[in-house]
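Q: Two folds, back to back.
A: First:
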Amino acid sequence: MAQSNIEPTNHKAESFKLLSGHTIPAVGLGTWKSGDEAFKSVFTAIVEGGYRHIDTAKQYGVQENIGLGLKEAMQTGIQRKDLFVTSKLWCADLSPDRVRSALNNTLQELQLDYLDLYLIHWPFRLKEGASRPPKDGEVLEFDMEGVWREMEKLVKDGLVRDIGVCNFTLKKLNKLLNFAKTQPSVCQMEMHPGWRNDKILEACKKNGIHVTAYSPLGSQGAGRDLIHDPTVERIAKKLNKSPGQILLKWGIQRGTSVIPKSTHPDRIKENIKAFGWEIPEQDFQTLCSMTDQKRLLHGEILFVNSSAGPFRCVADLWDHED
């Protein structure tokens, strides 16, 4: 693969500036559920698509494949300093004594010396090997401050350039901001026209925290496939763009980076063509006004135990803020 002569797509990959002064590319490749295709997808995205932002996580089970893809891509002449690689600290490692070893394991799998961004994947600590849904006693107490202090040390030691969070509520974000010495640079949340998540977006903007939107195309598996939404399709046809490009551009125009997941080479290359054009204001507001706002990826199977708790329903996970 390293011998590929295909030229990268020639376009300006826009980016956003983080609190730290570093920049995060506006479009990244999501790798959840990419399985055995992860290696090929990462190589295609970087070398043929011009991506410079790759998002992954220990829990996805694909980091070794992604590491191989990154290595192959860099052997074509792309430099590490020009890539932005994100990974996430899993719930079983959410204790101060496990943070550094979890990161070291991730770096080893990815074959990297440092991460650009390390995120708390979910703000809930699980016992190693917890069932789905969790049994009584498998959801443990989460020492948020202790874990954050260890993540701050990773930045100080040059192993991670920026740190942040995923799937936080306003309540949890405010708690973190009250004791953080190094502010979270990024908050990664589910966001798309079917779940705008306006409250957390506004809170992050107010605090200078960049937001990355995951599942920016909705989720077919969770019952909201926005690619085939009539409103999205109508605007796409009007602007001579694909529905995916419209959904991603909507996220970028809101000021968020977006990490669409795909293992299809043509779709990967199509998704990053979100620059050099804009969604007109009226169409943008139409997308901002879609009804039936609903979170699709709510974490119920991972964390809710309706009889034993401590989280007995989805609303408990999200601090009854939805």
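A: Second:
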Amino acid sequence: MFNGDFDDDTPFTPGFFGGLGHPMAGLMNPNRGFTEFYRCYPIAMMQNGSDRENVNYGGKIILPQSALEKLSQLNISYPMLFRLTNSSKGKGSHAGVLEFVAEEGRVYLPQWMMETLELEPNDLIEIKNTTLPLGSFVKIQPQSTDFLDISDPKAVLENALRNFSTLTLNDTIQITYNDKVFGIKVLEVKPNFEEHSGISIIETDLEVDFAPPVGYVEPTRQKAPPTSSMKNQVLNDESLQRKKLGFSAFDGSGQSLRGKGKESARSNKKVFENDDNDKMDTDDQEPQFDPNDDGPLALPFGQLFFGFPVVLPKHPEEEEEKPTHVFAGAGQTLRGKKGSKRDGGKLSGSSR
């Protein structure tokens, strides 16, 4: 289409359109790009700059009025994006433009951008317009574990990125929330091109992935205690029953009805001390009881013994109601009854 000596930087050669005398030559601007050098200063050094947090914690710069006039004469695509280069340090980044109110020959940058480009106030910086692809993915890493204290980091980050036009690989941007400043490093961007390694985040659906913050330590998971089986529970219960600590109820010696004492089973047990100096009992020896003891009851199969019947004492009133007969028995005398003598006399007289 073009001749062999076409140059992208100086496309209008003398042979193009028949030289500058061609009628079309006056309508074409020989400057196809915007490239300027400015003295850089942080936003805080701008008038009322300390009160503009959205500028200091954003990704846009402030250029002078003359830059707007030059850009308006060029075929610049919107939004206006720029490549910022510190040639002395070999550092570069990208930014958008917020206003054209800076003094002539000056450009104001956010503080984090000054640190990223290793710039000092009054250093020279090259600003050139560029075009970046719309970003689809970005992976970021907070530079402090304090970022985890934010209840809704997604909403906070979405609101903070409204002050940015571009994101560049390996840049460490700064955002503010609740009077705290959080540093965030850009670890990965997509699409990623070697010539600029930056993306535009204006009017695009951006997927954000978070890397663990710097200094974050993954908490160690505590192993859950193994569930005890039924066998272990039974053994534990038996060991607790056999363990004697201090006072033990019903641990005295028994007495039989025959008046002979029964030796305590406790005295026949072997006592030893374990490694923890806790005294425990063991049934190594069977308890020896009194040989004169009656022993257990021999009951027939299926019959239970619940003890002897209990006879409750009677109430005193019930005893008074019953009639009492004192000396109710018949008496006996040595002499016979009088009635019997009379009968005997009459009988004797009649016999006569």
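Q: And?
A: Confidence is low (pLDDT under 50) at residues 1-31, 264-284, 340-352.
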